[in-house]
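BUG: 3D viewer hangs when loading the predicted structure for this chain

Environment: internal workstation, default settings.
Expected: structure renders.
Actual: progress bar stalls at 90%.

Input used:
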Amino acid sequence: MRLIGMLDSPYVRRVAISLDVLGVAFDHEAVSVFSTFEKFKSINPVVKAPSLVCDDGTVLMDSSLILQFVEAAKANGKTLWSKDAMQLQHEFRVVSLAMAACEKAVQCVYEVNLRPKSAQYEPWLERVKGQLVAALSLLEIEVAPRQKDFEHAINQASITAAVAWQFIHSMLPDITEKGDYKSLIALSARMELTGSFIKYPPVGPGV
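Structure tokens produced before the viewer hung:
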């Protein structure tokens, strides 16, 4: 299998780290949707990262769907999700908040870095920033009381939350430094020292 995309994308990095933790073999190809658009287009005409090229050539998209497929077809029974229903509910909550925060962060970055200043709409940007702060605040609430669990767990919730925090903090420090996110900071610091996170650092051209 081939994973296409740059690791400075939280979606690509989330998949790469998860596959590594699961012990699933894959080749990573650092192709950018911006600087190497045409090359990406030749692999996947939709030009969406991450793209997973399966062994038979089928191209899958969306990080969550890619990971669902990999666990079902390639992980030999291994999973990054809990089998306990209540714990699984919590993990889904964490991942959904982390992914929502990433989505809003990407919207902020694109609005400021890609759209001409004259075309930027401040009320829209403030609305998106508000949604981002709400997602991060709720994510902190989910992580804080379970900090001991997160200290030892390498699962989809801890991976996604840590990847999301690193991306948002690196791209929008003016937003993250205004809030009280002690648990997310601690989680990110711990996870970034693990083997899979070190193996797949958040490197790339950015926007």
